[in-house]
Amino acid sequence: MVEDASSSGAPTLEAVAARAGVSRATVSRVVNGSTTVKPEAIRAVQQAIAELDYVPNRAARSLASRRTQTIALIVPESAAKVFADPFFASVVQGVALALARTDYTLTMLIESEADPTKTGRYLRGGNVDGGIVVSHHESDHSYVDAGIPMVFGGRPIDGGESAGPTVDVDNRNAARAAVEHLVERGRTCVATIAGPQDMPPGLDRFAGFREALEAAGLDASLVEFGDFTPASGAIAMRRLLERGVPIDALFAANDQMAIGAYSAIREAGLSIPEDIAVVGFDDDVHSATAVPPLTTVHQPSVDMGASMASILVDLIEGREAPTATLLPTTLVVRQSS
Amino acid sequence: MVEDASSSGAPTLEAVAARAGVSRATVSRVVNGSTTVKPEAIRAVQQAIAELDYVPNRAARSLASRRTQTIALIVPESAAKVFADPFFASVVQGVALALARTDYTLTMLIESEADPTKTGRYLRGGNVDGGIVVSHHESDHSYVDAGIPMVFGGRPIDGGESAGPTVDVDNRNAARAAVEHLVERGRTCVATIAGPQDMPPGLDRFAGFREALEAAGLDASLVEFGDFTPASGAIAMRRLLERGVPIDALFAANDQMAIGAYSAIREAGLSIPEDIAVVGFDDDVHSATAVPPLTTVHQPSVDMGASMASILVDLIEGREAPTATLLPTTLVVRQSS
DNA sequence: TTGAAAGCGCTAACAC
DNA sequence: GTGTTAGCGCTTTCAA
């Protein structure tokens, strides 16, 4: 179906102007919602736009306005983890959904391990208006001074100044509350499967664990480390059990490791929660349907993504934005504790 | 740090040309790998590019060349599922990784339910060179004739002509093999939790289930439907058990529903695989660490994403590409069967 | 093999 | 309020 015999590709602003009987500038004004246009002109333009099925060309708009209306989502190449981890997946989902309601477009930037400077150069090349970083594993944030606004998920590694606003949950206090819950249930030999200690969530949840036990006067030496994967949780749990000391509760730094621990606990012929009560962290999709359903710390992951997106948009558009946003967690008590 | 006192923002091609002592056209040729440039000129330009830390401006390039070097990843607004589903997450990961090795950029397009035409208009607006569609729930693919190449994950709904190349696994035969495995293990009362029957994977896996049982002369009426979520799996399993007829095996149309079924089976005081053998589909991250580890059909999800990406790039660049790619599945036998 | 020049489709002063 | 006029930074004929 040919819309306009004289045009070859998509209709241009010029075609709209001609059809509406106004100048290109006026069409541009209407498209961009300028208030200084006569109502009748607005109507004429809108009708022409509809008739022609006109869509502004992003590249041209961006070139002329020096804005790209594009936001980069920066994920590490070890993206396996980013997407396999339901928590990150929800954060991404939150970002994407929030942005879908704006005029911004999301582009995914995988940090190439082969060429670590690629990401930074792309950001500095004026191709995006801002960036969202959803991992903290690396401390080499060479893109921090990309000259454009950046928002980070999770607090920066200690010592590293935050390069921009952060959106996070209070991991330490949330972990502390989770462990206190175990203590209140009468558990006295509480172990933990901590996360990697080069990542803030790993560090902070571990700190919360220790705080809770020390406050209760309990031993806090039943510790093994995992890398947030189910398999690492299973391995860590086996090591804890092999110590041969009594354990009546476990705090896992995330749900995936908790689920991994489930299998090790079962292998050992122990039952949950009778022999060992388990609490996780994240409240991912699988925790509610685990057997038994997992008590865990719920993080508002979709909201975190949405917050990051809206903070970034505020920054890009020159509005004020909080430099550190802490979203509330809640302990979801199910049958594992 | 000011690289070049005379320039304000990022260095332009013009600045590179000046520094290298050549024309802008020559710089453009070098950047785009033209072979008709003298080696010494190439070197001079490359050095200038390095010194200036020059990055081509995408918008300008796209405007002039009428190519965008951008590929859209189109996901339904019910993106909750897309990202919560580890299978889709891996597919996306495969797409992203494959594209990271090319000059193409991935932009995520969420199909707005509020304005269903938005996606189509964006695609038709010349903003991307091609699109990858990773869901088939909707039959309204209004973007099929967006005038740009499109690649689809999974075969189209019956009747709907494929609007472009598809990448898929042979769901029917894979399901059939999974069920045959149960039959070979001596199971005779095989139930299934099928997926939604408006989605090809749901349909095809169900068809494979029936085929296998009919070929074995067994009853194929133990069927309940779920929506691929763990919760729906649990509910469906409960309904199956409530029928009061003997069941000694279950084929779930995906792992998430299989895991959901696990809890219903346990609630009923039955054990896996002694009382009921279970086989899933997808081989997602959790299946190996489930208790017991789940026997399942492994899909090469990352490869599927990568295939979609490379097929799309071939199409965009005018190369031939297969219209239907079927990737191999393998039955991973673990302890649940 | 290289340069000059003409746009790509749009925005943004600046006049009117 | 609206039109005119320059470009935004790059690619791409066309000549040389």
From TrEMBL, chains A, B:
It comes from Agromyces seonyuensis. It comes from the Bacteria. PANTHER family: HTH-TYPE TRANSCRIPTIONAL REGULATOR GALS, LACI-RELATED TRANSCRIPTIONAL REPRESSOR. This is Substrate-binding domain-containing protein. One of its GO terms (molecular function) is transcription cis-regulatory region binding. Residues 11-65 form the HTH lacI-type domain. It holds the Pfam family Peripla_BP_3. The keyword Iron does not apply. InterPro entries: Cro/C1-type_HTH (IPR001387), HTH_LacI (IPR000843), LacI/GalR-like_sensor (IPR046335), Lambda_DNA-bd_dom_sf (IPR010982), Peripla_BP_I (IPR028082). Residues 12-55 form the HTH cro/C1-type domain. Keywords: DNA-binding, Transcription, Transcription regulation.
